[in-house]
Specification:
With about 260 residues, the chain is an alpha/beta fold. The chain has a domain at about 1-25 and about 100-250: Alpha-Beta Complex (Lambda Exonuclease, Chain A), CATH 3.90.320. It contains nine helices and eight strands. Strands 1, 2, 3, 4, 5 and 6 form a six-stranded mixed sheet that branches. A two-stranded antiparallel ribbon has the order 7-8. Helix 3 (about 35-50) packs antiparallel against helix 4 (about 60-75) and helix 8 (about 170-185) crosses helix 9.
């Protein structure tokens, strides 16, 4: 069954032609950098802690091991900033001790329902293909009031401003997670709340901030409308190039002025 993930949807929303190159033509797009390596390594620590790692588990050593492994894979593709890498190792040590206490402070008594829970839920049929929404939910907790709390860990520098917190293509990730988690488990969506947990590298205090994102009926309708628009255009092979996306905030698109996108 054909599937689409939130990251793929983001690529389509940014530029349908970029989506074609990466997800249909299978050309290699963005491969990662020090920041994504840091995020993946810290996610791994969070996963281990939330699945009940015992006192013998060394968080810092685990971070270093995973971080080093990911960076090693990136080395043939890019020149690493070793000064940044060194700083990141120290920054991780400021964040790690607060992982479990931040959950306790925000949710009180809770049970861990799932960690890295996979989603592969049916959307609907388009032309000759059936589509599913694919995703992985970082963490689901359940509190004594019967509510489920869907949490996505995000690494960042000092935090997010108001614009980032309310940006639709940021919040829609949690919208989809809530919608399809409820669908998968046949849970009333009103019993599910969603959160981003910011793991802040450079913050002088409050290294972890957990904040709730409201995902009501209207936002869910808007998110599903965008998803269906994307699937309609993908299945009808409408790959319109968005020239405004050629130069992003972190530099030009990797396909800009190449044989693939002259």
């Amino acid at each position: 069954m054909t599937h689409i993930s939130f990251s793929e949807l983001k690529n389509w929303q940014k530029c349908a032609f970029y989506h074609k190159l990466v997800h249909i033509d299978k050309l290699k797009g963005f491969k990662g950098n020090e920041y994504t390596a840091f995020g993946n390594a810290l996610h791994s620590v969070c996963e281990q802690r939330c699945t009940g790692a015992d006192d013998s588990f060394n968080d810092a050593e685990h971070f270093d091991e995973v971080f080093k492994s990911i960076l090693k894979e990136l080395e043939p593709e890019m020149e690493l900033n070793m000064s940044l890498v060194k700083s990141m190792r120290l920054q991780a040590r400021n964040i790690i001790p607060h992982i479990m206490t931040s959950l306790k402070d925000n949710f009180g008594d809770y049970e861990v329902v799932s960690v890295e829970e996979p989603l592969m839920e049916e959307i609907e049929k388009y032309i000759s293909e059936e589509y599913s929404f694919k995703g992985f939910i970082d963490l689901v907790l359940k509190t004594k009031d019967g509510k489920y709390h869907v949490i996505d860990w995000k690494t960042c520098s000092w935090g997010w401003n108001a614009q980032r917190r309310s940006d639709p293509m940021t919040t829609y990730q949690l919208t989809f997670y809530k919608h399809y988690y409820a669908y998968k488990h046949k849970i009333d969506p009103d019993k599910i709340e969603t959160y981003f947990a910011l793991l802040k590298r450079t913050a002088k205090s409050d290294n972890i901030e957990i904040f709730r994102v409201s995902n009501g009926k209207k936002r869910t309708e808007n998110a599903l409308k965008l998803l269906k628009e994307a699937l309609y255009n993908i299945t009808n092979k409408k790959h319109v190039k968005n020239k405004l996306a050629c130069h992003g905030p972190f530099g030009p698109c990797e396909f800009y002025k190449t044989e693939h996108c002259p």
